[in-house]
Specification:
- The protein has 648 residues and is of the alpha+beta class.
- It folds into four domains: 21-177, NPCBM/NEW2 domain (Jelly Rolls); 196-274, Immunoglobulins (Immunoglobulin-like, Sandwich), CATH 2.60.40.10; 284-557, Aldolase class I (TIM Barrel, Alpha-Beta Barrel), CATH 3.20.20.70; 560-646, Golgi alpha-mannosidase II (Immunoglobulin-like, Sandwich), CATH 2.60.40.1180.
- It contains eleven helices and 43 strands.
- Strand 8 and strand 9 form a beta hairpin.
- Helix 9 crosses helix 11 (544-550).
- The structure holds beta-D-galactopyranose.
- Beta-D-galactopyranose (GAL) is lined by residues 289, 324-325, 371-373, 400, 402, 432, 456.
Length: 648
């Protein structure tokens, strides 16, 4: 063969073999953005194909990428590799679209339980890092974006040019899958038929103000109820099962209630503190915001009241039905009285309806010119508004802090606090300025019964755990009549608008949420649709021993006494000399564990000595006497809630 011919033939052979050669290298590529990215869970916004989370071209430190997935911390994508995956690669970094130089994330890749890539903390402006990971033999690929240790704000994160390389011998197609669903399991034993009276040990009432108190009692109906030692001016009305009237007998009066049915009887005494602050124990009720947002209307409020009564929640102590933002209409031109809008045709009739069920009625306003939803605020009209609320029959006012430019919170809330105090009704005053200028330091002084300590909660582990576990420094400010408020509950069906969905908290996270809020002596405001309570949710909010921890008359907020390898132990001293102890798994884990975590709690670490009697509060079940310590198993992101009583 001639030299030239040989070269030509060789080139032809190389070209003919080339596809074979590439095939043999297994270069079948699956692009991340072609998988079902709606399966990604993330802390904010929605995952985007070939764009950043805000919908801009993916850009990391001025380098543009045509393809990839834009997400937001904390984010988790799980991919079933279906066998035959060889490797994963991507360029990762924070997107340039964040204007402020804030936020940080880290990207982690796991092949099954093995971490195969960790970007370490990355900030805006960092050049994209190449993530390369061997996937040989792996069944699942996990792509994780953490919050980088400083919360999720501004954490726009990109997986740019992200591909899974498959073995060409396999024709498997990787598939993005749902996050593992954990079973909803019920711990509370439920009602036993015999009566249990659920009044708190202490109730506050205004001197000479209208008093209405439905007596919460669980147990099979009919019940035979009697009330003893009522002060002058108050009567027990058996038809509505309520104590009613007006009293001027200032000071404490011990009232006794007895209840009987064919299964047994119960007796309970409580102190009525006439002239003391309202909400001597944290208020319990429902608020429209976390389910309906601005899609609230009169029918939804009436339905919530109906459901609170019909579901039996009322007999566990739940009592307020509160409308949040978006009920306001225009002020009367001459009197300046506030009117409700067309969705609330008659506020007085609505208040009467709620009261007729034995429940209490709350409304929302704002210290500024307009509410957060853009409705009429109370600035300059505080007295007129408070009187208007009283005229309707309002029992609770939440006062927000939007549109308050140039205003100082303490004087502003003083004006509203005084206006409320002057009404002839008992009205609980809820300060909602998200912790701005430390309301815990002046909230009680201005008449606040509760004050928000943080921004708004949402139904994610990041939000709930961050808010709940950050309350320790405020413990000293909680006291009967005045409570730190870490925001409303995000269990059940929520949605902040017309469309509702199940809370994104896992069942164990929901046990954590309720247990922690009870230990913190937090106000308990349900945020879910009460007409759609499933068994799990109902059991979460009707365990009387759990609720009794929240309602304990000492009014102490739990302290975090142990924080060890992400296990946190919170301890609340109770009036009977025992301690409520919550042992929580507070870890931000990349991959969920199947099994729980064992933890040995030593009595000396929670300031106890000697033998202790231990009760599992969720199960309402005795665990016996333990000398120096007890070992328990905590589910992932879950809790063991114990009542520990010294054995004398
Ligand atoms: C927020 C407040 C929420 C809700 C909302 C209504 O400022 O924290 O709880 O009331 O306004 O617009």
């Amino acid at each position: 063969m001639e030299k030239g011919t040989f070269l030509l033939v060789s080139i032809m052979i190389i070209f003919a073999l080339a596809p074979v050669y590439i095939k043999a290298q297994g270069e079948r590529i699956v692009r991340l953005e072609d998988l079902d990215i709606t399966k990604i869970t993330q802390g904010w916004g929605k995952p985007q194909k070939n764009l950043s989370v805000d919908g801009n071209p993916i850009t990391i430190n001025e380098k543009k990428f045509d393809r990839g997935v834009g997400t937001h911390a904390t984010s988790r994508m799980i991919i079933d590799l279906k066998g035959g995956a060889k490797s994963f690669s991507a360029y990762v970094g924070m997107d340039d679209e964040i204007k402020k130089e804030k936020g940080s994330v880290s990207f982690r890749v796991y092949a099954d339980e093995k971490k195969v890539f960790d970007s370490d903390v990355m900030k805006k402006g960092d050049t994209a890092k190449e993530a390369k990971a061997d996937l040989t033999g792996a069944n699942f690929l996990y792509l994780i974006v953490t919050a980088g240790g400083d919360g999720i704000n501004f954490d726009h994160a990109d997986w740019a040019d992200a591909v899974i390389v498959m073995d060409e011998k396999s024709d498997a197609m990787p598939e993005a899958i749902d996050q593992p669903k954990k079973e909803k399991y019920i711990l509370s034993p439920g009602e036993r038929g015999a009566p249990r009276i659920n009044c708190p040990d202490v109730i506050g009432a205004g001197e000479n103000k209208d008093f209405l108190y439905y007596i919460p009692i669980v147990g099979r109906r009919p019940l035979d109820v009697a009330v003893f030692n009522l002060p002058n001016g108050l009567i027990y009305d058996s038809e509505s099962n309520s104590i009613k009237g007006k009293t001027s007998s200032k000071g404490d009066c011990t009232i006794t209630v007895t209840a009987k049915n064919k299964f047994g009887e119960d007796k309970k005494s409580f102190d009525l503190r006439v002239g003391a602050a309202l909400s001597q124990t944290p208020p319990m009720g429902w608020n429209s915001w976390n389910c309906w947002g601005c899609a609230v209307d009169e029918n939804k409020i009436k339905a919530a009241a109906d459901a609170m009564a019909a579901s039996g929640l009322i007999n566990h102590g739940w009592s307020y039905i509160n409308i949040d933002d978006c009920w306001q209409g225009k002020r009367d031109e001459t009197t300046k009285k506030i009117n409700s809008n067309e969705k609330f045709p008659d506020m007085k009739e609505l208040a009467d309806y709620i009261h007729s069920k034995g429940l209490k009625f709350g409304v929302y306003t704002d210290s500024g010119t307009k509410t957060c939803g853009g409705y009429e605020g109370s600035k300059g009209f505080e007295k007129i508004d408070a009187l208007r609320y009283a005229e309707w029959g309002v029992d609770y006012v939440k006062c927000d802090w939007c549109n308050t430019e140039g205003m100082e919170p303490e004087p502003a809330y003083t004006i509203m606090g005084e206006a409320i105090k002057e009404c002839r009704r008992d009205i609980v005053f809820s300060i909602c300025n998200w912790g701005h200028k430390n309301p815990w330091e002046w909230g009680a002084k201005v008449g606040g019964n509760l004050w928000r300590t943080t921004g708004d909660i949402v139904d994610t582990w990041e939000s709930m755990s961050k808010i709940g576990f950050s309350q320790a420094r405020l413990a000293q400010y909680a006291q009967p009549g005045h409570w730190n408020d870490p925001d409303m509950l995000v269990i059940g069906k929520v949605g902040w608008g017309p469309n509702l969905r199940d809370s994104r908290l896992t069942p164990d996270e929901q046990y954590t949420h309720i247990s922690l809020w009870c230990l913190l002596s937090s106000p308990l405001l349900l945020g879910c649709d009460l007409t759609q309570l499933d068994n799990f949710t109902l059991n979460l909010i009707t365990n009387d021993e759990v609720l009794a921890i929240n309602q304990d008359k000492l009014g102490k907020q739990a302290q975090c006494l142990i924080n060890e390898n992400d296990i946190q132990v919170w301890v609340k001293n109770l009036a009977d000399g025992s301690k409520a102890v919550g042992i929580f798994d507070a870890a931000d884990r990349d991959i969920l564990l199947d099994d729980g975590i064992e933890f040995k709690l030593r009595w000396e670490d929670i300031k106890l000595t000697g033998k202790q009697n231990v009760r599992d509060v969720w199960k309402q079940h005795e665990l016996g006497e333990w000398r120096d310590a007890i070992t328990v198993k905590i589910p992932e992101h879950g809790v063991k809630l114990l009542k520990v009583t010294p054995v004398l």
